[in-house]
Amino acid sequence: MKANLNLKTKEPIKKLNLEPTTPKHKYTTSFLSPVSLISTSDSTFSLSPKVPTTQKIPQSTKSKPSFSSFLSPNTSKNTLNPKHNHAVSHQFPINPASPRPVKTPYKDHDKDKIMWNSLEFPLTPEEVLKNFKQHLTQDEYEEILSFSEIFFIGIGVKKIEGASLRKKRFDDEEYNYRVTIGDHIAYRYEILQILGSGSFGKVVKVLDHKSKQYFAMKIIKNQTRFHEQARDEIEILNYLKSHDPDKSYCIIHFIDHIQFRNHICLIFELLYINLYQFIKLNNYQSIPMNRIKKFALQILQALRLLDRYKVIHCDLKPENILLRSSDSIDIKVIDFGSACFYDKRIYTYIQSRFYRAPEVILGLEYSTAIDMWSFGCILIEMFTGKPIFPGENEMELLQCMMEVLGSPPLKVISKAVRRNLYFEADGRPKIQANTKGRKRIPNSRPIKDIIRRSEDGFQELILQCFEWDQNKRITPDEALLLPWFSDSNELFGEKQMKV
User: Is the pLDDT assigned to residue 286 strictly greater than 50?
Assistant: First the structure.
């Protein structure tokens, strides 16, 4: 590839040194897994709580606190709690497996990478086709013409060849996008790492070559029902964003969305590990109470915004609460893929099982109160290190609740559409053994015994989260007024919580 390409360059192109020590891509960095960042040091991708993670971060001269300082002092070896059956992180696993990019047979791709990085962007499709056509597939020759600005094309990456774009060759057998590390999304974003996957599709870490920022991109499956769900999620995210202009309500910042090769892609700020992973790193031991209080305050901020504007999250759990960075315990609530407005409550099977509210199990109409039930479950899990209601199915889940809280009031049972599945005609619960032969007897493991070693304010909050009657359950606004949170300003220093 010759240097005289008739393209604008950042500066006059100097004689290129093409020895084996060819420099890395301009924006290449060493991407470490969250585990390797636990003991924080100044590195290319260390995250500072004072600066948004989507911005270029200057080197700090101050020493940062070790991530382990946020955990229990007696934390040692991490082992998987076999009772924690729900703990499959579909968002950001601790050790995401990311295959390395496969290089093309074209021998001069290193030269072309250097040439590409010396240019002024954006390029036009015509400029790319004239000078870098060898790095595109035949389908991309046509596809690239529909993009007005080109920032990245994935030079040196083996791309998917084969049938026509119309035959969904970019989809796997489960309609997920076939992710290739190092390739482009929409000729702008570089795929760096697979962060996680779920029923919705995949989450990848990307570098935006236009803004030079890192983001998390949620790539939705190429199926009609997932497209519809993604559009609902986008509507809710934009609605919440419009009511949280200064980003003070601890909800993940939604950047934008695009559609590429029939896949809807949602772009978010890049965050750190989730709360379940934090609990796992703490060896499933009790998190210090002052840390629990800080987490609780921030989750309530998010729930307060949702409750005010009648949005139900419908899937609040530790995996959907992410730490903002490796050296901070600021958190964000994520994943609004199951969320709904009050006037669009069309699903009856919602919430992850361990965090499912009783009204959902019983077939009653639900509200934002189901999120407060899930919130209570999360608080207990941080305190004990394991889920409080680990039911194998909905029958045992309800029995787990009665084991801890006693039987629900007859007033609640009488209104339940599905009461005959779980209760006798006189309101007595139907007791069934689980697969291990265990029977859970109502009130045999009282909630007060589980939390008796905690602070009084914590106990007060938990008891009000676990009200059988959702109309009596505490709201986010009421919770924030409890005496336990009276020192919120001291907890967060200069950062003022909205109360």
Answer: yes
